[in-house]
């Protein structure tokens, strides 16, 4: 059952990444990896928000909470975000004549990802406190 949950979540996340990536690339172009940046930053926010929400609204582990974690946090968001593409795009930018864009991409990705995850956690806490 765990394998099926991971596979389902991963398939959904990978499809979301693919289609959103195509849309962003069509809109913003491909000279800079805006699609991967948007996907990884939004995935960081969602992971921070949902992990915090799951911790607050299901304080004790159970089979159903483990299944939800596997499906959504590990499968869906693991399939949605992409560290390997981020690494490859950083390397490709590095080898361009304007390698400074690679440093900008690395800095922007790490900073925005951490800020988005922090904002996700804070948002879940605020929502939890508001609903309590």
Topology (SSEs and partners):
Blueprint: H1 2-28, H2 34-57, H3 63-80, H4 83-94, H5 100-131
Helix pairs in contact: 1-2, 1-3, 2-3, 2-5, 4-5
Q: Your description of this structure?
A:
Helix content is 86%, strand content 0%. With 132 residues, the protein is mainly alpha-helical. The chain has one domain. Helix 1 runs antiparallel to helix 2 (34-57), helix 1 (2-28) packs parallel to helix 3 (63-80) and helix 2 (34-57) packs parallel to helix 5. The chain starts with a helix and ends with a helix. The mean pLDDT is 94.
Look at the structure and give the mean pLDDT: 94
Can you count the helices?
A: 5
Described by strand count, sense and barrel closure, the largest sheet is: none
Number of structural domains: 1
Structural class computed from helices and strand pairing: mainly alpha
Task: Explain briefly what this protein structure is.
With 132 residues, the chain is mostly helical. It has helices at 2-28, 34-57, 63-80, 83-94, 100-131. The protein has one domain (2-131).
């Amino acid at each position: 059952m765990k394998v099926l949950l991971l596979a389902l979540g991963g398939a959904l996340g990978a499809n979301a990444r693919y289609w959103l990536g195509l849309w962003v690339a069509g809109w913003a172009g491909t000279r800079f990896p805006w699609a991967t940046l948007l996907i990884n930053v939004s995935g960081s926010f969602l992971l921070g928000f949902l992990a915090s929400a799951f911790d607050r609204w299901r304080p004790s582990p159970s089979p159903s909470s483990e299944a939800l974690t596997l499906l959504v946090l590990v499968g869906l968001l693991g399939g949605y975000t992409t560290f390997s593409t981020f690494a490859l795009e950083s390397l490709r930018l590095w080898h361009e004549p304007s390698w400074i864009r690679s440093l900008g991409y690395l800095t922007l990705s790490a900073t925005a990802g951490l800020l988005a995850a922090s904002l996700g956690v804070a948002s879940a806490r605020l929502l939890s406190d508001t609903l309590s």
